[in-house]
């Protein structure tokens, strides 16, 4: 299959999609792949700065012109639940329904646990996690309506953009990693709750050169090398895979966690018990736990590598 097969007009013809944070970066790459496949797309974006403190609506105009006729860009703050509901209903009304929801909008406010301002925690959780719930809460009745109208409906698709920081952890990313881990939980529940409505839900941990990559200030040589490599990763690869997940071919792929790093595609395992032990009659004693952690459990402990350490190999670009 050539790289552009899933983008050829027709694969997503007639599908109606919503992309949050689709005005730039990875969200724009996804919106482009969806319109390239023939879907109609509504982008919800407020032109936020990386930390979400400022807005620039020139970004929205630029996205509208890049995406062209198959798309509409709405100026919406996805952390505002009422604004989200109004925008989702309007988008579904305009497009005649909804099939695809991509939760991609996110901001970054890093700070070590012992320094992070609780207001920054709230802003990150609101934008990177609660917003995805607001969008799904408003969009899922539209997805279910499509399934009610046609019992053979199987075109519903939810793709949540997470981050490897959410399951590896990363220094100073308490809020960001917690929000992304929460979004993974939301993905699993969406896969279950929406299964009967012909809708799949999957998560992608992306890697792609965006303004966020450009903003990395390396603290050492290893980080400088990481940044250099990361700047070469085209976000279009994430767009192509997301578009494939939204196609009919992926109708039985749900509840999964993927990674896309340039031409590399990862399927991640998800936590399941790695070891099991049963307490002696009467419950655990310190001695019994000491034995367990000196033996079987010791061998199964997860290391504490960060995602930057794990993915320090050169990307295939
Ligand atoms: N770039 C990477 O390598 C990378 C790595 C891991 C995860 N991610 C994830 O991929 C997604 C996109 O990242 P990116 O690098 O393209 O980021 P980006 O900052 O370039 O783009 C984010 C988009 O979200 C929008 N947005 C932010 N807050 C919003 C709000 N309240 N309402 C509406 N729109 C809002 C911004 O305006 C922007 O268009 C994010 O979820 C991010 O966490 C990216």
Task: Give your account of this protein's structure.
The protein is an alpha/beta fold and 317 residues long. It has one domain (5-267): Rossmann fold, CATH 3.40.50.720. It is built from 12 helices and 8 strands. The chain has an 8-stranded mixed sheet with strand order 3-2-1-4-5-6-7-8, sandwiched between helices. It starts with 15 loop residues before the first strand and ends in a 7-residue tail after the last helix. Mean pLDDT is 95; it is low at 1-6. It binds nicotinamide-adenine-dinucleotide. The site of nicotinamide-adenine-dinucleotide has 32 residues, from helix 1, strand 2, strand 6 and helix 7. Residues 20-21, 23-27, 44-48, 50, 52, 76-79, 104-107, 127, 161, 163, 206-208, 210-213 line the site of nicotinamide-adenine-dinucleotide.
Radius of gyration: 21 Å
Give the uncertain stretches in residue-range form. 1-6
- How many structural domains does the protein architecture include? 1
Q: In the CATH hierarchy, what is the class?
A: Alpha Beta
Helix-strand makeup class:
alpha/beta
Number of strands: 8
What is the approximate shape? globular
Report the β-strand fraction as a percent range.
5-15%
CATH topology: Rossmann fold
Number of DSSP helical runs: 12
- What's the CATH H-level superfamily name? NAD(P)-binding Rossmann-like Domain
Ligand set? nicotinamide-adenine-dinucleotide
Distance between the termini: 17 Å
